[in-house]
TrEMBL record:
Belongs to the sulfotransferase 1 family. This is GH24726. Keywords: Disulfide bond, Glycoprotein, Golgi apparatus, Membrane, Signal-anchor, Transferase, Transmembrane, Transmembrane helix. It comes from Drosophila grimshawi. InterPro entries: NST/OST, P-loop_NTPase, Sulfotransferase_dom. It holds the Pfam family Sulfotransfer_1. The chain crosses the membrane at residues 18-42. Disulfide bonds join C330-C342. It is a single-pass type II membrane protein.
């Protein structure tokens, strides 16, 4: 009898224990879910405020502030990456990429303070890296740097700081590698890259096509004779014992046969390279910018570029002024006309004197190719 009472008590206490366990587990579960919710919402609001602070920064492009901004921005990106990983959000991989590879001096410096753009950025849009929508593919020494510097004044354009050379030199590294060389953008911003050798590299059109058939292509062109001299001037600035231009541009020392194998001459046969691009892209996806007009009337050419890219005309004549010492247009970083900025010393060099007979012969050589180029593009650039 004592035994059965003992058994009964035992059954009773195990049942109580089981009930207590169930209650405990339920309590733990509810408290965990509740905490997780709270944590996620705190982390989200932190993230948004950090990002909008970052994007609202009005940055001037002098070296001191760029350094400060780079640090602030890299910290902010780190915070975002940490929050994202705390949330288990998949963007963590994008954001945790080493901040040192980001070109903050480039895009952030061009963030415009216009209220409309600030509002767009306040809508909680998260920055991430994207493959470029638009490429400046050439032509070398025609004003490609000027074009990039001018168009990246637009708050909706972000560009890789240096030439990435993905499609001609680093293609084997893959698109993931390429994407990691792109700047952070938010929705509505265009990602841009400039590598002028793309225009003349045979494999590039097909590779760009495979990345994105809708890629927009910007091509600055300049009188091929002046371009060749500019190209030569650049090469000669790096090599002390360079032969004279006239010796390199012609075969056998006379001006009768043009050396079409010499890079500076070969690159100027634009029609040949363009025909290859047109096998992959319709003319409507290409915009040709006159290198001469980009110097004479930069606002006009940048207006065309903004239209082509579907952007509001934000960069206007108010952003440019002619710098008499430099002999070229320079920039105001904002409409407020603060921080004038000219391109560096390697842009706008003095060219050496070239024998006029050599120049005339080169003009004659290029004429049929130029005419073909006018025909292909539907634009008469009126080169002499
Ligand atoms: P030069 O240095 O021979 O004058 P790229 O950027 O493609 O290498 O082209 C360089 C050329 O851009 C320069 O060639 C220069 O003529 C031209 N250019 C156009 N706009 C310019 C600007 N605002 N400042 C300096 N150079 C400019």
């Amino acid at each position: 009898m004592y035994g059965s009472i003992w058994c009964h008590n035992l059954n009773l206490s195990s049942r109580n224990l089981a009930i207590a366990l169930v209650v405990c587990v339920t309590l733990v579960y509810f408290s965990y879910s509740f905490n997780a919710c709270i944590l996620a919402s705190i982390s989200r609001s932190l993230q948004e405020s950090t990002l909008s602070n970052l994007l609202m920064l009005q940055v001037r492009n002098d070296s001191d502030t760029v350094a400060t901004v780079a640090t602030a921005a890299s910290t902010a990106i780190d915070v975002v990456a940490t929050n994202a990983s705390a949330n288990g959000v998949s963007t963590a991989t994008n954001l945790s990429t080493t901040a040192s590879t980001i070109d903050f001096s480039a895009g952030l410096a061009s963030v415009d303070g216009a209220p409309k753009y600030q509002m767009l950025r306040q809508q909680g849009l998260r920055p991430s890296r994207h493959l470029p929508d638009t490429l400046i593919i050439g032509v070398k020494k025609s004003g490609t740097r000027a074009l990039l510097e001018f168009i990246r004044l637009h708050p909706d354009v972000r560009a890789a700081g240096s030439e990435v050379h993905f499609f001609d030199r680093h293609y084997q590294r893959g698109l993931r590698w390429y994407r990691h060389h792109m700047p952070y953008t938010i929705e509505g911003q265009i990602t841009m890259e400039k590598t002028p050798s793309y225009f003349v590299t045979k494999e590039v059109p097909q590779r760009v096509y495979h990345m994105n058939t809708a890629t927009k292509l910007l091509i600055v062109v300049r009188d091929p004779v002046t371009r060749a001299i500019s190209d030569y001037t650049q090469a000669a600035s790096k090599k002390a014992d360079m032969k004279r231009f006239e010796q390199l541009a012609f075969v056998n020392g006379s001006y009768s046969v043009v050396d079409t194998n010499w890079g500076p001459v070969k690159i100027g046969v634009y029609a040949r390279f363009l025909e290859h691009w047109l096998l992959y892209f319709p003319l409507s996806q290409l915009l040709f910018i006159s290198g001469e007009r980009l110097i004479m009337d930069p606002a006009y050419e940048i207006g065309r570029v903004q239209d082509f890219l579907g952007l509001k005309r934000v960069v206007t004549e108010k952003h440019f002024y002619f710098n008499a010492t430099k002999g070229f247009p320079c920039l105001f970083k904002s409409e407020a006309r603060s921080t004038p900025h000219c391109l560096g010393k390697t842009k706008g060099r003095n060219h050496p004197h070239i024998d006029t007979n050599a120049i005339d012969r080169l003009r004659e050589f290029y004429r049929p190719f130029n005419n073909k180029f006018y025909q292909l593009t539907g634009i008469n650039f009126a080169w002499p």
